[in-house]
Automatic annotation (TrEMBL), chains A, B:
Domain of life: Bacteria
Naturally occurring in which organism (per UniProt): Pseudonocardia spirodelae
Repeat in keyword set: no
Domain HTH gntR-type: 7-79
Entry keyword DNA-binding: yes
Protein name: GntR family transcriptional regulator
Cited Gene3D superfamilies: GntR ligand-binding domain-like, Winged helix-like DNA-binding domain superfamily/Winged helix DNA-binding domain
PANTHER family the record matches: TRANSCRIPTIONAL REGULATOR, GNTR FAMILY (PTHR43537), UXU OPERON TRANSCRIPTIONAL REGULATOR (PTHR43537:SF5)
InterPro entries cross-referenced by the UniProt entry: GntR_C, TF_FadR/GntR_C, Tscrpt_reg_HTH_GntR, WH-like_DNA-bd_sf, WH_DNA-bd_sf
Record keywords, A-Z: DNA-binding, Transcription, Transcription regulation
Length: 238, 238
DNA sequence: GGTAGCGGTATGGTCGGACCACACACAAGC
DNA sequence: GCTTGTGTGTGGTCCGACCATACCGCTACC
């Protein structure tokens, strides 16, 4: 007779916890009450609490751990990139958007970051990137190279200073990790491809070091398009 | 003795379902097996299955419904924007990134979309946007105006043709809905602000209709910055 | 006195079973 | 033929129990 039908127990718990997070009552690093206590306090079952916490965990806001130590229990630990990456990856798989759109979005993001980074990058940023590049000089297999590549691109985004853009960059790059890895594995001359990618990276780094934002942006766009174009699109006949 | 410690029951279920989704075995519109059957098939408890499904639901990939009809049960229904919006909103609340970064990201996205839209928008797109604008001419309160505003901006992004960018645009706009609403409510002369926003919208629409991408991008950037700058940043003293 | 070992305890992780609420399908009755 | 009731399959919820882990503190031994 309430008119509004019972709004689902786990949603109630979720709303409650989100309210605490939004209001700033629970901040990163804080421990949430034990599941049993939360359940009792909200008049919900423990299962309802667990479902809500599981959702928040998937959204990269909390982390749970058993035990009694100060690090155990459920803690507020923001990790947006991982959560965003998984969502994008899933929706990519389920055809929520085509791969070409992802390429365009990646170009947009990384051009933007490159422009910012050319202006804002510190000396330490440049050194960090250089270290990533040096690490990529080894004879890495596609998987290891891919991870190092992610680190380099994310380092650029990070030195741009915009955290959201940086997280989105990481998320998008990780969402296409599988596809790009496939492309690397199917490449006949992997060492040659690897060498070319390394050279492109060095050029981007040089442009950033010189503070030439437009050139850096152009270079990174060409770098991304060449790689994505390699075989990401067209599932049609050869 | 396996070396690898049992990888959590619900994660096993999650991995299984994601594999089905990624492989294309389960596609949008398809029905998943009933929870009980899935549990039996995977040798997991129903609770483990429910936690996994809850995560997927939060990620905007499935939708659950009771009953026996063809629409009931758990169905693959991609809804990325809502999921992304919630993640961004949560992380905004939890200080994963500052509001100014969100503003910059929004400007980047919408400039990009405006440029695309100026080239690609169809006549129908323009008419649709015009309809949104007309709807905003009524004496709307902030909440209603805000929703119409979202619809207009998303319509621009959609007519740009990049689905991922479009979804990200909606997600980011929705993540700041609360903040912007607060700004609207605190505005002394709401009708005047509303009128100005309307005028800016008309200018953007005109630029898109004329196919002038740069002008459209400039106008939308000014529009966004003026509004976000209103009181989104600086929580310091007046 | 120090230290190694052991049990206590708090926490999340998992399971099984039961019941409820809902929505449709179908048959019985008017 | 239409309505009504009953059955059935589905997700939603709860309870209670037990497990696995990690720390804490006590005890007993050296």
């Amino acid at each position: 007779m309430t008119g509004v039908r019972a709004p689902a127990a786990y949603e109630m718990v979720l709303a409650h916890v989100e309210e605490r997070l939004t209001s700033g009552e629970w901040r990163p690093g804080d421990r949430l009450p034990p599941e049993r206590e939360l359940a009792a306090r909200l008049g919900a079952s423990r299962q309802a609490v667990r479902e809500a916490l599981r959702v928040l965990q998937a959204q990269g806001v909390i982390r749970s751990q058993v035990g009694t130590g100060s690090d155990s229990g459920t803690v507020v630990v923001p990790a947006p990139a991982r959560a965003l990456g998984r969502v994008l990856q899933l929706h990519l798989a389920v055809d929520s958007f085509p791969v070409d759109d992802v390429t365009e979005a990646r170009v947009m993001l990384e051009r933007f970051s490159a422009g910012l980074a050319a202006r804002r990058r510190s000396a330490a940023d440049l050194l960090g990137m250089a270290a990533e590049l040096d690490a990529m000089d080894a004879d890495l297999d596609p998987a290891a190279f891919s991870d190092a590549d992610i680190a380099f691109h994310v380092a650029i985004a990070a030195s741009g200073g915009n955290k959201l853009v940086s997280e989105l960059t990481r998320a998008i790059r990780e969402s296409v990790r599988g596809v790009l890895l496939g492309a690397m594995h199917e490449e006949r001359d992997w060492p040659a491809l690897r060498a070319r990618l390394r050279a492109e990276h060095r050029e981007i780094h040089a442009a950033l070091a010189a503070g030439e934002g437009v050139r850096a942006a152009d270079r990174i766009e060409a770098h991304i398009r060449a790689f994505h174009g390699r075989r990401l699109s067209r599932p049609g006949p050869a």
